[in-house]
Amino acid sequence: MGRGAVDLQPRPRRPARHPHREPGPGDRPRHRQARGERPVKLAVILFNLGGPDSRAAVKPFLYNLFKDPAIIGLPAIARYPLARLISSRREKTAQANYDIMGGRSPILPETEAQARALEAELKRQAPDVEARCFIAMRYWKPLADETAKQVAAFRPDEVVLLPLYPQFSTTTTASSIKDWARNYKGPGRSRTICCFPTSEGLVQANIDAIREAWDAAGKPSNIRLLFSAHGLPQKVVDAGDPYEAQVRATAAAIAAKIPELSDWHVCFQSRVGPLKWLQPSTDDEIRRAGAEGKGVLIAPLAFVSEHVETLVELDHEYAGLAAEVGCLPYLRARTPGIRAPFIGDLAEATLVSLGRPGGARPFGAWMCPDGLSKCACRASIDSVEDGEPVPGAI
Fold this sequence. Notes:
It is a single chain. This protein is an alpha/beta fold. It has three domains: 25-50 and 106-196 and 339-381, Rossmann fold (3-Layer(aba) Sandwich), CATH 3.40.50; 55-100, no CATH class; 200-332, 3-Layer(aba) Sandwich (Rossmann fold), CATH 3.40.50.1400. Helices cover 39% and strands 14% of the residues. Strand 3, helix 5 and strand 4 (189-193) form a beta-alpha-beta unit. Helix 1 (58-66) crosses helix 2 and helix 9 runs parallel beside helix 10. The radius of gyration is 21 Å and the shape is globular. The termini are far apart. It catalyses: Fe-coproporphyrin III + 2 H(+) = coproporphyrin III + Fe(2+); heme b + 2 H(+) = protoporphyrin IX + Fe(2+). InterPro entries: Ferrochelatase (IPR001015), Ferrochelatase_AS (IPR019772), Ferrochelatase_C (IPR033644), Ferrochelatase_N (IPR033659).
């Protein structure tokens, strides 16, 4: 087929949902298989953080994390020894956290479930496409170099890069896409979905999870809804990273459709070191709610699968803090996982992207406001500078 126009017939779940979008492959009513042609081969690369699959993998996982220039923006000659030092110092504490989850991170099996669900949804929406989902983790297996070989062997006509980070950041999405570009030299026309912070399926999946947690607790009235996202140093955001703006947009989109939980706030977890991070912190918001006689319902906002930040930090550390400060009840919504609205959005985002030229574009109605210089839509990901050192990482 070559690298010309894609001839597909996807079946969108809600055809009128994005009237503003560019014409996509679904706007071309032709059936390749009906004409005896082979299906278009589509490779969808799902990116995520990764996590250790055993206690022995904790230290190398941490080393891979801290040697990333997007995390510690020092020259390699200084960054690599520092990464070895940090990973050695943090190994035992991190192992204790993973022990709570059975000695390993669940992020890979959860992402594999999402990949299977997405393949099935792509087959439903676009039966003329031979779609296969591949997983490339940033800091532990399967890493990009291994996945790149699998994708090249598949010999796709089209490649869609789909980070499982709803909100773009130089420290997550940009790092993963750069890593992929260094490793993949195989066939296929490529484009990137840089973010989807306000997509309808993401929003609905979070609403469903929040309502389930609230309903299961008997719909308590003294509840404050806390949207908790992973934090970043303030200086990263001040340098033009769009992450905070997108996180707040996600929270506002969800809250607008849950009027019964009108008391809500955005907060940020996982803070380390003395440098100023995004505010307010989740632990401070829990203390404040307790002092005001309120319980909280925590909705993890920037995570689409369960892992250490949800199963340990939210379910153990913050639950313990809530009990100490009288912030009760303490409820927690689940991540989107394989909920149908979320998986449907990923499929639609993938197929819509095939109808446009290469480069990075968001899915849904979102567009970063002016002034966010690190937005992937306003500058190529390759031009996005690596991050600043993260103080306190040692």
